[in-house]
Amino acid sequence: MPTTRPRSVRGIACLRFIRLTHVVVSTDDLSFSDALLQAVDADLTHQLQVDAKMMMAVVSAYMSWDYVGKIHVRITETQASHFAELPSLLECLPKPLSELQLEFHQVFTSGLHALYARDLQPKMDMRFHQSVLQWQYELSLQAYDYLEVHGSPLVALVQSLLKDKTLRRFRRGLSPPTFELMWRQVVRDMCDWIERGVTQKTFNDVGAMQLEKEVRHLSVLCGHFPAAGDVSLRAEFTRLDQVNICLGTTSSGVAAGVVALAGGFRRDLAGAFFNGVVVSAIAGVEEEGTDEEPDARDATTSSFTAIDT
């Protein structure tokens, strides 16, 4: 017995040495490009695993947040119907449900923000900035008809972004409510990038019609993208709708100036204030102009009056 144990240890050591030398030889046989590909594949696999764990944590935190909210409502209803004369049952809990719900809310919101900011936002921002150079809104009728058939650069860009592998992976991995939260943030940033891009362009009447058509098309595309069904994105497209109103109610000579004025305001400003400033700008331009086409000026004033009311 004492002599067999050292032999087995030596055998195990020899086997390990053989395996180690085999691994070294096999890795030495690899070219630099093959080794680089292996390293990239390993890094991508690790990143996918990190994203998968993050998505699981986000979905779990959202479900817990929703469940705690339902418990809060159930306890409140039970208290009101059966124990109205007793002190609040919620105060008997060791930890307030509102604090617990807030903690879960912070977990899934911060997780969604981390996924979006790391994997989606930078490359989408870069692609929008590159695409702005191709946008044209001083168009002839022939160019308008051409874009009607072949599509515009802006719509083609958004369609390509909707095919992004990372975005579609998030749509598959997240639950419908959590992906909708992320998707609304994506659309808000998308509309902001479009707004900044169009403020750098000059417009004529045909170009204003082209932008209005593009915004309508994009709102439909983005509303259909979530897997759970159509999503109303009216709030996210409000700014672009206001820009279209500006372009639709001004002449081609002042359109670019009004759009630049609109781009200076942020979303946190009230819509009435925004409309009031634009009406003032248009009124000043009309006072400097001639008295031609009074019906068109009346229609402009009445349209903004209807918006303000």
TrEMBL record:
InterPro entries linked to this entry: COG4 (IPR048682), COG4_C (IPR048684)
Sequence ranges assigned to domain Conserved oligomeric Golgi complex subunit 4 C-terminal in this UniProt record: 55-247
Annotated stretches, region: Disordered: 286-309
Comp. bias intervals (Polar residues): 299-309
Pfam families: COG4_C (PF20662)
UniProt feature, compositional bias: Acidic residues: 286-295
Protein name (Swiss-Prot/TrEMBL): Conserved oligomeric Golgi complex subunit 4 C-terminal domain-containing protein
Naturally occurring in which organism (per UniProt): Aphanomyces astaci (Crayfish plague agent)
Species lineage: Eukaryota, Sar, Stramenopiles, Oomycota, Saprolegniomycetes
